[in-house]
């Protein structure tokens, strides 16, 4: 599940870094499994929030193996609704949403008996296949991070005026009741 964690963390932190227009302390993060470095905002509260949401997603994915799913990062403004007789509520006006589509798969052979004695050649092939998949995933993540950076740099007209705090946001992950 560390692969899933690193993939989602890299994507979310890259989006936040390129959409956080306040003063931050950039922090380079080297992925343990991939030859990829991404930048975090260096905001402890944000790092904790992202970590919690990713762990929620991983818990969901463990209960729903081999499923497609989505993580959504939304940025919004809060506007006061016209007050009624008994309410003065605010409404969220979303100005940007990032949908991260994920297909979480279990490694081949998972769930089979652990005591089986496979020939050394089969084990070597499995390691080579795992390495090949990891390399392909690394390239895919690099491509996604570059797409995020390009989009964030090109599309700025819809962003509200800069304030002295991080933009309002929410990270939605599937809940335990979602079966997708």
Automatic annotation (TrEMBL):
Superkingdom assignment: Eukaryota
Entry-linked InterPro entries: ATG101
UniProt feature coiled coil, ranges: none
A GO cellular component annotation in the UniProt record: Atg1/ULK1 kinase complex
GO terms (BP aspect): autophagosome assembly
Keyword tags: Autophagy
Residues covered by region (Disordered): 106-129
UniProt keyword S-adenosyl-L-methionine, yes or no: no
GO MF term set: protein kinase binding
Matches recorded under PANTHER family: AUTOPHAGY-RELATED PROTEIN 101 (PTHR13292)
Family: Belongs to the ATG101 family.
The protein, known as: Autophagy-related protein 101
Species of the source: Aegilops tauschii subsp. strangulata
């Amino acid at each position: 599940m560390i692969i899933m964690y690193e993939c989602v963390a890299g994507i979310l932190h890259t989006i936040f870094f390129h959409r956080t227009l306040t003063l931050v302390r950039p922090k380079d993060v080297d992925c343990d499994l991939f030859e990829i470095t991404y930048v975090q905002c260096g905001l402890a509260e944000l790092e904790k929030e992202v970590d919690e949401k990713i762990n929620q997603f991983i818990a969901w994915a463990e209960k729903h193996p081999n499923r497609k799913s989505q993580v959504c990062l939304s940025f919004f403004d809060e506007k006061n609704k016209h007050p009624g007789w008994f309410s003065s509520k605010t409404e969220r006006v979303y100005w940007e949403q990032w949908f991260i589509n994920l297909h979480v798969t279990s490694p081949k052979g998972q769930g089979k008996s652990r005591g089986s004695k496979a020939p050394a050649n089969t084990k070597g092939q499995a390691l080579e296949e795992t390495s090949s998949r990891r390399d392909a995933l690394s390239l895919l993540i690099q491509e996604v991070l570059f797409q995020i950076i390009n989009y964030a740099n090109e599309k700025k007209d819809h962003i509200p005026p800069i304030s002295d705090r991080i933009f309002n946001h929410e990270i939605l992950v599937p809940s335990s009741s979602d079966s997708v």
